[in-house]
Amino acid sequence: MNYLSYVISLIAVYGILTISLNLAVGYTGILSLAQAAFMGIGAYSAAILLTQYGFNFFSTLLVGMAIAGLVSWGLAWATLRLKGDYYVIASFGFQIIIYNIFLNWINLTRGPFGIRQIPPPQAFGFAFLGPVKYTLFTLGFLALCVWIARRVGDGLPARPVRGDGG
Fold it and tell me: Are 44 and 109 in contact (CB under 8 A)?
């Protein structure tokens, strides 16, 4: 059961990442290859706050999202004038830089060993311990992200699709 829960949790996490990519590419038409970098920035921020500073899980979610949002705003500002392939190359370069920072900043991220002893999420005194509870927790976040993305997507104007093949 642990392996199945692990796989389902990974599907949920990658589903959330896919939803963010769909919002960027599907609704705006901007191909960014830095989605995983922003996910990693938020995840490492949350993990560091949880393990080293004793924050609770839900406050680290907000702080991690805020840090990833600020970094993405900085990348957007720096690449504001880039278009097409040049933007794709810049976002891919940013992805590679962040990956190397995660891999080589041993004092902060523990490099290839990763951060260990991350406490389980807790809400209202209920800890999501065990594979089944954690799987349901990740699926709940996936459902929440799908709902939010649908609400955001419904508010955006449809991007015209060219029917001439080009």
Answer: yes
